[in-house]
């Protein structure tokens, strides 16, 4: 394939880079495993180069995918899980709607009302979300404080209802497993910056494979590959 502007200066074609990006972000494999898979196809690439590709394009993939997502419902399920970064545990805030569609994520070194407000603001700013009528969370008191403060500031719909019930959050807790499974082969992240970029890619591919795109099926791998190529490559 021709060298296109998003991949200018790379020693590999856009086809190879996007293939590696999709596979790393969709399946629980390490960079070394992915390098071996490419080698089996006659393409010799170092695992550090694969890491640089993910850091360069994963967050861009997430940003571009969001413009094509189906709207989420107004019932949010919010929870946080743990991700190891540079040997220390950090907090990954995540939300899905009542159908299991991904709403947003936020990686934070702290678990408090300030972090919860940052997460809600980020989620509300996405093009596929609406002001929630129901927010289901666990018993963490930071959520009630964050919601109350955002309502007073006019950042959140004043009729939004906060429901603190742990067992009703099973849908988002089950969804955490997908992210944990993808992150496990990497044995943790080296910095918050690299973790955020990689997690953005995990979430982007997760949304695609859940069928959240308007015109692409969640199980149609060929259609997904063509869609991602169109996001990065200008028309010929």
Automatic annotation (TrEMBL):
Q: What is this protein called?
A: IS6 family transposase
UniProt keyword list: DNA recombination, DNA-binding, Transposition
What Gene3D superfamilies does this protein map onto?
Ribonuclease H-like superfamily/Ribonuclease H
The record describes the protein's role as: Involved in the transposition of the insertion sequence.
Which species is this record about? Answer: Teichococcus vastitatis
Domain Integrase catalytic, by residue range, is 67-236
Q: Which NCBIfam families match?
A: transpos_IS6 (NF033587)
Q: Which SUPFAM superfamilies match?
A: Ribonuclease H-like (SSF53098)
